[in-house]
Amino acid sequence: MDGTTNKQSVGAVTPRSARFDEPLRLKSGVTLGGYELACETYGTLNADKSNAVLVCHALNASHHVAGYYADDPKNVGWWDNMIGPGKPLDTNRFYVIGVNNLGGCFGSTGPHSINPATGRPWGADFPVVTVEDWVTTQARLADQLGIQRFAAVMGGSLGAMQALAWTIQYPERIGHALVIACAPNLSAQNIAFNEVARQAIITDPDFHGGHYYEHNTRPTRGLRVARMVGHITYLSDDEMASKFGRQLRHGRLNYTFDAEFEIESYLRHQGNKFSDYFDANTYLRITKVLDYFDPAAEHGGNLSLALEPATASFLVVSFTTDWRFSPERSREIVKALLDNRRDVTYAEIDAPHGHDAFLLDDARYHRLVAAYFDRISKDLGA
Amino acid sequence: MDGTTNKQSVGAVTPRSARFDEPLRLKSGVTLGGYELACETYGTLNADKSNAVLVCHALNASHHVAGYYADDPKNVGWWDNMIGPGKPLDTNRFYVIGVNNLGGCFGSTGPHSINPATGRPWGADFPVVTVEDWVTTQARLADQLGIQRFAAVMGGSLGAMQALAWTIQYPERIGHALVIACAPNLSAQNIAFNEVARQAIITDPDFHGGHYYEHNTRPTRGLRVARMVGHITYLSDDEMASKFGRQLRHGRLNYTFDAEFEIESYLRHQGNKFSDYFDANTYLRITKVLDYFDPAAEHGGNLSLALEPATASFLVVSFTTDWRFSPERSREIVKALLDNRRDVTYAEIDAPHGHDAFLLDDARYHRLVAAYFDRISKDLGA
Predict the structure, then answer these.
(1) Which of A284, B319, B344, B364 lies 20 to 30 Å from A98, alpha-carbon distance?
(2) pTM of this prediction?
(3) Chain A interface includes B28 (CB < 8 A)
């Protein structure tokens, strides 16, 4: 492939909605009567339905993984650099599925949806979900699509936690797991940052205990602060230093509380942008999904025991400057897999971008993923 | 001293207020007509007034550095483990001065004070101050006390920045600088965390553009979030892991937005406590003081040039797990001092506690500071 790659977009794509009427008992104990999941697919499912790859999204993304919308061509999928004809996850060979997770705010059933019991938006009453719940809903989506087994489940960050959970919950239904920029659970510091974000939202007077839809308002101030603090953890210190450093907006200090340094202006912009399109109740729940994920917990903290059921092959990737989920955390996963004599490839990519590196078009990283999918392709006899 | 130290408290102390009527032109260009500084002193000034040590405070501390108040014995000074008879900074030998910096909220003139021009609290109209302004006011306090030259100026974090600025602004008035857990300026990431804190406060509806005193309210919600995010940066990841880990408050997950993990409960407690006693306008200004500090800026970013005027001897101390101001940042200071062939002792203390280590009673760290003050004592012929 080297030197002759011809990367293309999957082109204009159309999301669709999948309806599920069978009640879903969540890990919290709450049962959800029915729900919808927004999803997109790219490429063609082969005759024996063996070439399907599920791509799981992280905190703020969606089912719109690749391509663009005909009526909104600037709205490009969040992992478009990874997925498409000739790209590392090549849609000429694989059938790729993106799904907006339950509780999301991009078309799937979530806090903004109408609660059938009240005829009003769920708001604060929408249940807290977990990675395991998401995996269950994704398996049901696979059932609807007639896919018995995924060639691979893939994700970065929280998306990677879903891939990991797949290998435990449905070992027979997943051939390969691509676990990128992941951690086997959140550290106290990770939880602490999530809690700051949640408190910013919950204490915003416009939050109204989570029932803000009915007040025709949104906790925009809280959501802005939440995103700002989150954003800091996605970038490396070095990346911030080289991108912004102590660069001033107006060439000199003005001794006011307006944005004086470029980094302030950048963070405010990120906060504003995010609070315009993301739903606060979804954000709250997704941070809880992260906090709760801990497959080892039910095994006395022993991750090796937790991963015993897994039969998939694994690609585990970390990034040197990721301080949110550092390479050390990925190595915990690798060690647990090796304890179980599982087939695992591990790569630590030397990249300056911090946690967000998993979303970026880094040549070594993308070559690695491409090579791994080549191998999957060969396994399938494609 | 080893093995026979007899550490004591300085005992009951009484703060006092120093009044300054000479106008002060601030770095921002604003002139302040007059002001008061709250201060405390411990020990006895010797006959030639050569044994005075100024202790500068960091973000949320005050002039109450050591001892306790007779009517409030639990209110112990913030660096009481460091300062007192037989302690590293030994008040049997040194005359120690603590001062609440201008703009503070513990008795010195600040945003909560009455603006003589309006008869109402300054609020948002209180000027933005800088480390250099603080050093100027501290020099005036020394003048009032008849102290021509400090045996040492000492501080941790933002306090260390003041010690460093002293060596540049008043090289002839400082014998030794103890620069602990410092950085020569804030990184983009440091500024980013400060900006999150500021936005949390400023966007709190109870902030009222900084004039909340007149509305009989306080931006408590914003201040809580600001403190929570700050607090995360004071502790090391490891320290949080060993202190809290993923420990649950109630032994099991409850799938609610109440504090489920101990770290959440701890952070909320820290936020609540802080927002009860600290003034938001002061907090805003002190984060700006941090952002602005950058002695190299006026020398084209060359810290060695900036430190050229310094003639003091230096003790520079950093802590291995401090990720707010990492040892690397202290080494920048050491390098700049060595470029100028200054007398500098540097120690990197292996401590698990992160940035807050400078406040803790770590045996190696305290022995080091004690030994350094022994040397100062000998220099003084005391």
Answers:
(1) A284
(2) 0.96
(3) yes
What average pLDDT does this structure show over B16-36? Answer: 97
Indicate the residue of B28, B191, B235 with minimum beta-carbon distance to A255: B28
Å from B197 to nearest chain A CA? Answer: 8
In the residue annotation, B322 being an active-site residue is answered as yes
pLDDT tens-place string over residues A31-51 = 999 999 999 999 999 999 999
CA B301 – CA B176 distance, rounded (Å) = 24
pLDDT of residue A331: 98
Q: Given a cut of 60, is residue A227 above it in pLDDT?
A: yes
Query: Which residues, numbered 271 to 300 in chain B, qualify as contacts with chain A under a Cβ-Cβ cut-off of 8 Å?
Result: 271, 284, 288, 291-292, 294, 297
Residue A204 · residue A219 · CB < 8 Å:
yes
User: Which residue in B has a C-alpha nearest to residue A256's C-alpha?
Assistant: B128
Residue B41, strand partner residues: B97
Which member of A196, A224, A260 has the closest CB to residue B229?
A196
What lies within 8 Å, CB to CB, of B83 at 6+ separation is: B10, B42, B55, B65, B66, B77, B89, B91, B96
Reported as a single tens digit per residue, the pLDDT across B274-301 is 999 999 999 999 999 999 999 999 999 9
- Asked if B61 contacts B277 with a C-beta cutoff of 8 angstroms, the reply is no
For A179-215, how does the pLDDT look when each residue is reduced to its tens digit (9 = 90+)?
Answer: 999 999 999 999 999 999 999 999 999 999 999 999 9
Kindly state whether A189 is in contact with chain B, defined as any CB-CB distance less than 8 angstroms. yes
Work out the pLDDT band at A382, boundaries 50, 70, 90. Answer: low
State pLDDT tens for residues A301-312. 999 999 999 999
Please indicate whether, in this complex, the C-beta atoms of B268 and A28 are within 8 angstroms of each other.
no
Percent of chain A with pLDDT over 70: 98
Question: What is residue A123's DSSP assignment?
Answer: G
Cβ pairs bridging A and B (under 8 Å)? 147
Which residues of chain B lie closer than 8 angstroms to A302, CB-CB?
none
- Looking at residues A353-378, what average pLDDT do you find? 97
Question: Nearest C-alpha of chain A: how many angstroms from B166?
Answer: 22
